[in-house]
Amino acid sequence: MKRRLRVDPIACKAHGVCAELFPERIRLDDWGYPVLDDRPLPDELVEHARRAVDACPRTALHLVPIDERGARGRPELPAGDEQLLP
Ligand code: SF4
What we know:
The protein is of the alpha+beta class. It has a single domain, classed as Alpha-Beta Plaits (2-Layer Sandwich), CATH 3.30.70. The protein is 21% helix and 21% strand. It contains 2 helices and 4 strands, in the order E-H-E-E-H-E. It has helices at 17-21, 43-55; strands at residues 2-7, 26-28, 34-36, 61-66. The strands form 2 sheets. It has a two-stranded antiparallel sheet. Strands 2-3 form a two-stranded antiparallel ribbon. Strand 2 and strand 3 (34-36) form a beta hairpin. Iron/sulfur cluster is lined by residues 7, 12-18, 34, 56, 58, 60-61.
């Protein structure tokens, strides 16, 4: 399953940690907010992306699965949090 990054613009507070940890796909704009490369992540970059997601102090960065048509699904939740979904 392919994945891409998504940011919650309300939760993000422009810490910039994500861009430091994953410069291959995240850069910062002039105000320090992340600008994400929207392309699906190749398998070799998924662990780097996950590290940036885990380090976000606002839990504003997410890995989302995408189907073959490019539609996005729900954010991946940490193990054990699946019961939070409706
Ligand atoms: S680490 Fe999180 S809060 Fe900081 S800029 Fe990235 S997404 Fe936003």
